[in-house]
TrEMBL record:
Lineage, top ranks: Eukaryota, Viridiplantae, Streptophyta, Embryophyta, Tracheophyta
Superkingdom in the source lineage: Eukaryota
Record protein name field: Uncharacterized protein
Organism of this sequence: Avena sativa (Oat)
Amino acid sequence: MACPCPRPIFLSFPKSPAPPLAVPAKHHPSATATVAVSHRPRAVSASSNATPPSPPPSPSPLPTDGVGPAAPTRGDVYLGRQLAAAAAAGARVRAPEEDAEKRRRRKEKRKALAKKTPSGVACCYGCGAPLHTGEEGSPGYVEPATYDLKKRHNQLRTVLCGRCKLLSHGHMVTAVGGHGGYPGGKQFVTAEELREKLSYLRHEKALIVKLVDIVDFNGSFLARIRDFAGANPIVLVITKVDLLPRDTDLNCVGDWVVESVVRKKLNVLSVHLTSSKSLVGITGVISEIQQEKKARDVYILGSANVGKSAFISAMLKTMAYKDPVAAAAQKYKPIQSAVPGTTLGPIQIEAFLGGGKLYDTPGVHLHHRQAAVIHADDLPSLAPQSRLKGRCFPANDTDVELSGNTLFWGGLVRIDVVKALPRTRLTFYGPKKLSINMVPTTEADEFYKREVGVTLTPPTGQERAEGWCGLEGVRELKINYDELDRPAGDIAISGLGWIAVEPLGVPSSDPDGSVEEEDDVRGELHLTVHVPKPVEVFVRSPLPVGKAASQWYRYQELTEAEEELRPKWHY
């Protein structure tokens, strides 16, 4: 008997599970299992001896067991396998707050990079200000005829603006105002805007060369340098070491600088003592830059008037002997001037034969320095022009004691000596144009009112003295000493210089009296320092200058591990 033709099977994929189709028993008498004809895998009934296959493990909450309508579909199995693979690979869903932080950083980076001067904008090679023919006398101004001629011949990058020409001839033309700027004169840009121009540096891959003035070490140090440099490596360069007193041992100075950097917790590659005038230490800085820049751009960074443009000129002069690119760059180098704020924008310099560019940057203008409170015309009086020479009070040939007396350093600093030893001496290191006067403390107020603007300058002149803010910032100092054969410490005035405090600085003419003083080797000196309100006063360990410093200076005793972690210094 012929087997009847089997019923045709139609495959369908309904949205809801369909009941399984069973084959009639008369058609296949020996079969006892029901067959599910659909897109799902076949389910075996409980009467079958075959063991049903176990579903694959899945971390998802999808159903993984069941028979018949409750069995997982192929899509469920596929989704479970994908989720399991993602979990095995360590994939995770990012938290919403992490996404928000990432978006915030990207937005901040785009905003900072937008402030970078576009490469197509022609700028003055002397100060970095964009060239224009608008407001006469402003930074970047060029006469229209000169501008059109240079533009026609593609020579705008060789143009010096009118302000830079005046600066190169010794004129004092200020341009920076605002918080940290300079009162008096014209103010075309604020100190805050100049700081914003440097905000993109933290997002660049660059080598940062940070400059610090040794005469104003604390005031020009830029403790928050990482706000500008980001995570980029830093080479620390100390400038103007040629201004230190004669017979100063630079080994002591180098160790003192490294110790100060370690205390400030600034991580630097190395420390270099340099002089842009005598070219001391410049070769060592160039070698360090060539070794560490690794095809990155090099940015010269520092506070205003720290000597960045002079340092770049010294670098180009030294490199020109072996590098033709640096020799060609000397023709169009940044302008040097005693006016803080000479550079108003990043200046790109082609200085390296092997790639990478050198940038001179605007100085960071700090409101706590003396230059930010005096008139623009008085700024030259704050800049030392020759080697420093300590001025001691009282002098060795006098019998005057400091206790009960007041010392005026120009019209900018007043020091009241409240408590001191009979032979205590104060030694002033700073610009020679500022005179030092000593009067009894009881007469100090009247003396200052009468002589400010006349004997006590700056401020210079009666007109500026009337608008002078006065010495409203007062700080009471207690300086401890435990050794009589070395200075107890330095009082550093931001933007001016420092004062060395020596407990027994004056030689004794009475041998018996000196013995009584030396019995008390520990004590405290009380002084009150008056400065203009924004100006900061620092108390630090004594800077070892002069011939006698090599005798009393003590090097730090370090283990091999500590010595390895400390940055190395060179000169």
